[in-house]
Specification:
Blueprint (H helix, E strand, L loop, with lengths): L2 H13 L25 H27 L1
Length: 68
């Protein structure tokens, strides 16, 4: 829960020198591990292909947003 906020906090802590990236796995508790299901490979490939198209079309927008 709150993965984005936690991730941002870890990145900030690394930037401040409080921790190293290598420390982060020891600071996280996992409740479950999910593994891709081989029988869904075609679906994963199709959706990833769509994701790449969206990313490439929006890349310049992301670049402008991050430059602000």
């Amino acid at each position: 829960m709150q993965a984005n906020a936690r991730g941002a906090a870890f990145i900030a802590a690394v930037g401040l020198g409080a921790i190293d990236f290598s420390d982060i796995p020891g600071l996280i508790r996992f409740q479950r591990t999910y593994r891709p299901q081989p029988e869904n490979r075609a679906v994963y490939d199709r959706l990833f292909s769509i994701f790449l198209k969206i990313y490439k079309k929006n890349r310049s927008i992301y670049r402008r947003l991050n430059a602000s």
